[in-house]
């Protein structure tokens, strides 16, 4: 029974990946992330009997995932049918697909990508100035130091706002790529790459990979060929390897120290060891298992805190008069550590772990919420002009990967602030052109 259910949950995630790929939904990145971070590892753990938790826990996890996925798929399909009948979805292609292709910029769009490119450069320059001011040199840069500085500065941490500008503008790399502006694409890609290497923040590499993958996802093809399977598998492995490389930067104390003691085979062996041991990102699902084992018996669980926070995303917690709950990732971190006094360590147990912690077994019905939310995102993105659409697809691609690993609120906060920045730039260009 354990093997059968583990296999069915894997198939359910694969079906969702294929469905959302064929429909050209941006949320395909959510399911691709869950396939890599939960579906495949969970199945392999059962097959090879490499389980940190008992059979009952693994069976319950499989059942929860199957039910959540089924409710999501049914809701997503029905919403698409309703939207199609009402003809309230503006698309470039049929079936509400978001399509992007090679095209020449209208003159009014050129100013847009110039502003976004300047914004990306500004975020990188701000990072360099911030690093030199607080750490003396970029050679002293490492994730741990940035984390400590951020904790001490709080809302005065400039890097926090620089990161938001970075995520909002990094999608310009995709705009350049789709329009054959090779030099600008290379420059913007280098900026994203070095931003990630300096900060040591793993999610900052995502815009680059998503910009590279998107043209192979949002095209006119709906059937998946063997060639595409090989490509997406290879791309997934490269992304996973890169994420673990950035994790290794933290262990070594930054990019400079890593390169000072560079040993390709030694570093490669460490990354492979972390992968095979299920360490890092691939171990996040274990916290979901723990929540099942303790049956959500922890203060703050079963109260939908993540989703209340999402609804109040525009209001700072300190100004919400107690209506906005505290960061639920900290609560999940406390449960993971079995330390009720924890106030700093957070935990992101994949999306499945997050919905379970929020509403226990009733969390399967959050599949309806996610279907509605993802439909809104797709319709919102698909109504934009070419440049804005490309920027938003990269932005929400990043959001969905972050949400898939279980950092739901943080992911959508990046999306929320990114949309504000993108549309402020849009209005600025329109005002300039109207003069």
Automatic annotation (TrEMBL):
Keyword Heme in the entry? The reply is no
According to the record, the segments passing through the membrane are 6-21, 28-51, 57-79, 111-130, 161-178, 190-217, 229-249, 306-323, 355-374, 386-403, 409-429
Coiled-coil positions are: none
Q: Which UniProt keywords apply?
A: Membrane, Transmembrane, Transmembrane helix
This protein is called: Oligosaccharide repeat unit polymerase
């Amino acid at each position: 029974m354990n093997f059968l259910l583990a296999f069915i949950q894997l198939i359910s995630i694969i079906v969702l990946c294929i469905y959302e790929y064929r429909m050209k939904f941006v949320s395909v990145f959510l399911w691709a992330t869950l396939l890599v971070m939960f579906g495949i590892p969970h199945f392999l753990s059962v097959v090879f009997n490499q389980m940190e938790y008992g059979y009952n826990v693994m069976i319950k996890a499989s059942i929860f995932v199957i039910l959540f996925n089924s409710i999501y798929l049914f809701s997503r399909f029905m919403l698409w049918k309703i939207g199609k009948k009402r003809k309230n979805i503006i698309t470039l292609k049929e079936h509400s697909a978001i399509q992007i292709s090679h095209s020449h910029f209208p003159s009014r769009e050129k100013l847009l990508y110039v502003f976004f490119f300047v914004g990306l450069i500004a975020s990188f320059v701000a990072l360099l100035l911030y690093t030199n001011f607080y750490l003396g040199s970029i050679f002293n840069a490492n994730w741990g130091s940035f984390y400590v500085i951020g904790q001490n500065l709080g809302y005065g941490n400039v890097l926090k706002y620089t990161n938001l500008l970075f995520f909002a503008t990094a999608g310009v790399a995709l705009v350049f790529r789709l329009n054959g502006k090779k030099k600008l694409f290379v420059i913007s890609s280098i900026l994203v790459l070095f931003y990630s290497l300096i900060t040591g923040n793993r999610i900052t590499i995502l815009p680059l990979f998503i910009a590279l993958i998107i043209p192979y996802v949002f095209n006119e093809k709906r059937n998946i060929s063997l060639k595409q399977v090989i490509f997406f598998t290879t791309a997934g492995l490269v992304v996973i390897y890169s994420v673990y490389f950035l994790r290794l930067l933290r262990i070594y104390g930054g990019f400079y120290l890593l390169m000072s003691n560079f040993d390709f085979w030694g570093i490669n062996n460490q990354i492979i060891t972390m992968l095979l041991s299920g360490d890092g990102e691939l171990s996040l699902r274990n916290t979901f298992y723990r929540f099942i084992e303790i049956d959500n018996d922890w203060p703050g669980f079963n109260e939908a805190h993540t989703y209340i926070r999402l609804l109040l995303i525009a209001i700072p917690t300190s100004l919400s008069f107690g209506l906005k709950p505290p960061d639920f990732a900290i609560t999940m971190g406390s449960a993971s550590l079995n330390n009720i006094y924890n106030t700093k360590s957070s935990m992101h147990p994949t999306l499945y772990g997050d919905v379970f912690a929020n509403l226990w077994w009733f969390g399967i019905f959050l599949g309806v919420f996610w279907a509605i939310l993802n439909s809104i995102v797709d319709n919102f993105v698909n109504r934009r002009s070419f440049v804005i659409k490309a920027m938003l697809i990269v932005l929400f691609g990043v959001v969905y990967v972050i949400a898939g690993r279980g950092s739901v609120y943080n992911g959508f906060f990046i999306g929320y602030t990114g949309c504000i920045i993108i549309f402020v730039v849009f209005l600025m260009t329109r005002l300039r052109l109207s003069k």
